[in-house]
């Protein structure tokens, strides 16, 4: 019987395979074929925006991501569509389907994507074919890596390119954007080994080469050059600072005597002693801290004169960015207003971050090699992979020990994939194992406390360096690890909710998150002040305050009219169409974005409805909406019910004690809870809320917020303080004196900025040429010129300003914002009416502003 069963199973399998084979044969020709010659050449995608969106279909390969994929298997379906696979040098395989529509048009599908239309061009759009003789001599030379190894990578010769000691014959050269400097695409081969090189952003000393899926690694013409591009090299090389740096022996780290004396003099002014530990009653202490230092290799010819520290108050959620002034001789300095010890990576120079630890009343000196900093990638910076950095001052030991620990890197693409593939329990278990490994690594770092190293510092002196870890340092590092882990777990819940709206068929995303998922919070020191020191606390507390279990609200029907529009029309016998009913049908939105999209798509239909039933809607408004608004306008208590519910969830469902962190959650919500209230209502709410807050400093912060929102003397416009930032801003707004100015800080990469400007287009048109007010728009160089010009033209923006990065940083500091969009209202005299203007309610705010500024 066993043999008979196996025979039946085998017969079934054979029949199944035969069925599949027959079906496959009906769909695809049994013999291999090749692509017709008509498809070989340059193809342009149908973006319609005039930008290059092309690809090359070569007789031997198809281009994708700066690399050739050689054809492996080409077949033709019965319907005429070609199906083929192609493989690159790393054996990555792409699957394609190609349909020929005409001699000059095809549809191409890659992988599981959609078919896209391509049109054939003789040459790539905006380019021309050239010979090697046309390639500039600045490119035709040897090029070395900028990874610190100084390896000879490329050598360009008249008929070949030598790449990593292997010679490739040049098959063709294409010059993109020949009316500009442009870039050059080389197709080269050695036998059947094809390469595609894109030489771009070139000058006499540096260039980028895109290949093997990379958009462009940097190369230099001489080994002696810094590993970071110097834009104005001739100017830099002739400057005093540049000569010193370029002529210095590799690894030399001398600090000019004048600079060294300045640093010593600044440090000598420090009178306060560092905190012994974080339990000190001086932990919360408002005061000034100073960051000073020296950038080895800096010169003004490099094109920047500032850095920035993105300072913030994590207790209240406020931003206080501070500009770091860089002097011509390489010295830098900044004064920080802080209220607690701080360990942050938010000190930024040329998009590179520098970690530091500081306390109120202290000064920290940092000396570093500018070009080492600029060469490092973001991941290395966040993982503390610094080599040549030196700290001086009372907190030098803390900083040296903090930077000595190597943090685990984060693969965000891997995390994103795990959202869709790992259930909550499995994700949490994996993350907690990572946490254990990180804590073990920290303990191992601490265990080597007896090791003493002797090395040269950046000032050239030999010194002994203890790796002893102070208790404060261990506390900061451990809390940083705990906070990063907690953020990852809390963010997992939020991100998978978003992904579930995009991938509605994913079974993993439909699994609920059990309440015990959050029990990792029980192992965190949520009542310890030391938790606030790490820069990761801001991200963590933001995730905690919006964590799903705590995101609970009491039922509140007072904001809803007694009858909806549809109910009123039905009761009154007013007949409306099916499509009109659909506009006001009750919906349960899965996201705010979907609701906004619906109203955007139906904007004209809503306008038409309101025009058609204008009289009926006025009656409805008088009867149901105006009484509701009047009731809401009366002073009333802000309910404490949401906190009663959240307190219960925290202690009963999540099993957590009330803590300093939870009190901060309440304080961070204060401004939002009261800013639309009457002063007496707001003060009453804060009086009741602060009974649940035990820490005196948090109560002081709450008192400050209430007073700033509702000053006893009433709100008045304020004058800008004298200084560089005000000078920059006055240079923009002074020409509009006599008018109210609404300022929009924006960028082309900022989605909410773009959406806000588009939404206001009709409003701007409505008030165009108004005698009382004007709109202006300010961005920086992070808005690329082509996208910037195109958007400005599309939106018909007037009074637009694209500032240098240095000037823009000063305006960030002036109006205290880290994120954009940010809106500011200026009165006719040039004083600030509102430095965080609610542009979403422009029409509602306008009449009051005009009335107060006649």
Automatic annotation (TrEMBL):
Source organism, top-level taxon: Bacteria
Keyword match Signal: yes
Compartments it resides in: Cell envelope
All copies of domain Thioredoxin, residue ranges: 714-854
Keyword Metal-binding attached: no
GO terms assigned for molecular function: isomerase activity; oxidoreductase activity
GO terms under biological process: cytochrome complex assembly
N-terminal signal peptide: 1-25
Protein name: Thiol-disulfide isomerase or thioredoxin
Record organism: Salegentibacter echinorum
Lineage: Bacteria, Pseudomonadati, Bacteroidota, Flavobacteriia, Flavobacteriales
